Amino acid sequence: EIARCAKCGKCRSVCPTFVVARDETRVARGRISLLEGILAGNSVPTRYAREILASCYGCTRCMDACPSGVRVDFIIQQAKFMLAQERGVKRFARFFFRRILPRRRVYDRVVRLASVLQRLLPGHAARPIRHLPLLYKGRRSIPHLARRPALRALPELVKGRGEMKVSLFTGCLLNYVYPEVIASIIKILEAHGVDIIMPRTQLCCGAPVLAQGDREAATVLARRNIACLEPDKVDAVVFGCASCGLTVKRDYPMLLPEGGALAAKVYDITEFIQRFLGYSNIPLDETVTYHDPCHLRWGRGVAEPPRELLRQSCRFVEMAAAGECCGLGGSFSISHYDVSCALGDRKVRAIRESGAGSVATACPGCMLQLQDQLARHGMDTAVLHVAQIYERSYFMERPPDKNGNIR
Questions:
Q1: Cβ atoms within 10 A of the Cβ of 153, count?
Q2: CA atoms within 13 A on the CB side of 361
Q3: Spatial distance between the Cα atoms of 312 and 308, rounded to a whole number of angstroms
Q4: Is 86 exposed, middle or buried (0-12, 13-18, 19+ CB in 10 A)?
Q5: Tens digit of pLDDT for each residue in 353-375?
């Protein structure tokens, strides 16, 4: 796959890290050249070399722009597997991936403890965020962890009319930070008569584990998620997180032979609504713009469904460069916060210039990043998931009948 790269440099024009750093090593062809040297024995995987590979946060923009169709994501992932096998996974990460993530109850307790400690951090009077005063020069803002995660607060089974049956995957951020988004998705599916199964035994999709190259731990998570989501017994597996959806769609078949059956049933909630449910909602009298999650638009090619959902649900305005990265990139924004903020500045400028009162997106990671970046700029623009906009629009002026059902 490396040999297919012609080093043409088309990736330079779209790579977020290169646009900010202007460093040839921080672009797809630079990273591929580095790996060529390592595989040929001309270079060694020094700490700096490993950092260069880690600075790619997998937005997949380069693959969309590549005229040769080089699978850069595959190359980088295999390199991370190779380096992890040779150098090992960091001790704390290894412990967390293998002892905490595969155990739902233990993971819940760890997050519950974190939510208690979080209340000691300074808060913001107007917005549900708290600051990290000792990290990132006091600039970073984070939303509240939920007191009860979605998998505990919401029903595991919801009976519809039986015409369709889906498994609902929560992921970590929606489960622990934005359970209200999962509640909106359930309300939408239930109102359309869809049978819903949200297995309480589901685990992290494995994206952060794959980012560290721990293939063994990622395979354990994938196997358990495949077993509890039961793709052979449902019509679709619905996701509200773009990154989780891409991980299951792209990486599970690579990890396990049975991963293909689950990958074939993956639908983002916006895709599922457009394809199976349609629109019968009443548009809100609100102006909303939309930010494309990289993993949905560029990773999976899903750009129109969320926009059509918003057109049907509110006054939708397109922001400039909606497909440009917001700067999160998972753990990338932790290790490279200055670059993350530089990308966030561009996104905040586009949101401000759109004139919208709210910005919607289809990924909780992007929601977290946008909230942080807007707070840095002192803006009170609401950040919502597209499912929340649709849910509010669908239930507006729809009083329940005597049995409590929405007509």
A1: 14
A2: 30
A3: 6
A4: exposed
A5: 999 999 999 999 999 999 989 98
